[in-house]
Amino acid sequence: MTAWGRFISENRGPLLVTPALAVLVLMNIFPLLWSFGLSFFKYRANRLQEPEFIWFKNYFKVLTDDRVWNRFQTTAMVVSIDVLLQLIVGFLLALMFEKQFPGRRVLLMLVLTPMMLSFVAVGAFFRYYYEPTFGLLSQAIKSITGEPFILLASPAGAIAGIIFADVWMWSPFVMLLVLAGLVSVPKHLYEAAEIDRTSWWRRFWTITFPYIRGLLLLAILFRTIEAFKLFDIVFLITEGGPGTSTETIAVYVYRVAFQYFKTSQSAALGYILLFVVIVLTNLYLYFVRRRAEEN
Amino acid sequence: MARRRREIGKAGWGRTAMSAVISFIYFFPVLWIILTAFKTHTDALAIPPKFLFTPTLENFANVFSRAYQRGGEEIDTHFDLFFFNSIFIAGTSVLLALAVGTLAAYAFSRFPLRGNDTYMFIVLTTRMLPPIIVIIPIFLMFRVTGMSGTYAGIILLYAAFNLPFTIWMMKSFFDEIPPEVEDAARMDGSSEFKVFFKICLPLVKAGLAATAVFGLILTWNEFLFALLLTGMQTRTVPVAMAQTIGGDIGVRWGLLAAIETLFLIPVVLVTFLLQNQLLRGVTFGTIRR
To answer: In whole angstroms, what is the distance from residue B289 CA to residue B282 CA?
Structure first.
């Protein structure tokens, strides 16, 4: 073997990984470090002024800003209701598809479609359905109550509208995970329970639930990470309004960065978000590994 | 590979009927958009909503060229360009990510580095982080280097955007091949290149296809990066669609529905083909079954 060949086979791991890491460093790590640096300066991207080093002032400003805390509260509320509803709807859908029946494959596809769609398309759909005069949903509700239904005009309604769209889009994701858990329950356990005439409820808690617990947890974490970043749907359905009542933290960072052009402040805020996401991702991977070991 | 075969209970036509009704309701928002695409402007705004109507293809023609004012001259909307951009940008960036990412995934799976898990974690984090954080410096970076609004810039960015997904997905497929297969080939004197290209790659063909298609959908649907970093010449469909909503047409929902329908059809078809890989795809290969 030539020296060159030996070098390749001894370092094949690092050699194969390098191109991928290079792309990630260029397009992800480097920008991240840049914005980390930026978060210590006073800088606006739309001015020619030289950046001025101001230590932790941006972080201080961001963390003591009532508006930021308010956006965090909005986000926390949206995320918790959103994820909870996704769990419930996803779970019920999974129970429906748990068994094999004629036409299951086609029907499953109908339900799985929403999560493959683009946020822009979904946002546009629901804007159309919420439209007060001819929107499908507004008309349906008007025909029942007799009152015109203007969902997006009130803060609570606007939040409900966003959550409704997101739940519709992402419940199938929860369904997929729960379904994977449900079909992994060994059939003989059910047969034994059948003989013992256990109630449905008891059978569920003692047999089914232990098999889906792990996946349910992963579903919650995954959806929480994603919902925390909620941007496109809000941007398209309400643009954060009415007022700032639906401005999630991601939308707020976007505004600070690209509408108010407080570039370095938005970088500081971004880093606080990053911290939250890293904690959640770590938790997610921890449970993925634990599940892999159990299997 | 001995994999426990999952048993699944059986239910009859009763379940089919119930599921059909619920699935249909669930799918209805998509179906209604597709129907709206075939309606005239008056039908689309009808109160009460029209379920039966004479279909028209007018909206689809209007997607590509239409009059911006009543009675005005028909103007090219450049939507043919935007569709081309979406396909071209998604295709190229996914190929790039696949080429680079598959090699890395193979290494992560077969020749673990010191701190392998840490690398994998960093890779995943770059994908989980809110895009808004990276986009600020990328925006500045693109402005300085003049990459903003060019194909090269957005393609490179999307390749990086797809890379973490590709690496995690492909690693999960490589992990499923027993190492003995390769070791046997090495024993016979096959070179590393041969082992990878002739033995491993054919075994993960299905995985490559699934990863590529998922990457295509993710990129096809992406909005925020495209909004901030593409120019008039490189604009993709989601951005053009969003601008159509807020912009020139006011409430011409039939037209918007037609754009959406054209945009959705490939995704709906692909969802059907991918059904068995969907779970793995949406969890970045972290959950296989």
So the answer is: 12
What is residue B67's three-state secondary structure?
Answer: strand
Q: How many other C-beta atoms are found inside a 10 Å radius of the C-beta of residue A199?
A: 9
Answer yes or no: do B51 and B90 share one domain. no
Inside any domain, residue B33: yes
Q: pLDDT digit string (tens) for A154-181?
A: 888 899 999 999 999 999 999 988 888 8
- Tokens (6 digits) for B57: 């293809």
Q: Which candidate in A109, A279, A280, A282 is best for mutational testing of the B interface (most B CBs within 10 A)? A: A109
Residues B41, B108: one domain? Answer: no
Domains, chain A, in order of start with CATH, read 66-119+151-294 (1.10.3720.10)
* Same domain for B203 and B101: yes
Is residue B285's pLDDT more than 70? yes
The least confident of A25-34, A141-150, B95-104 is A141-150
Dihedrals phi, psi of A266, to nearest 5 degrees: -65, -30
Classify the C-alpha dihedral A39-A43-A45-A50 as positive or negative: negative
Asked whether this complex has an ipTM greater than 0.90, the answer is no
B108 in a domain, yes or no? yes
Whether A277 and chain B come into contact, CB under 8 Å, resolves to yes
Residue B69 within a domain: no
Inter-chain residue contact B260 with A125, CB threshold 8 Å:
yes
Which residues from B are below 8 Å from A121, CB to CB?
33, 221, 238, 241, 260, 263-264
The torsion of the CA quartet B272, B257, B262, B216, rounded to 10 degrees, works out to -60
Looking at the fold, whether B218 and B272 belong to one and the same domain comes out as yes
Give me the domain span that covers residue B196: 79-282
Place of tokens 């249909």: B24
Q: Which two tokens stand for residue B62?
A: 């209007």
Number of domains within chain B: 2
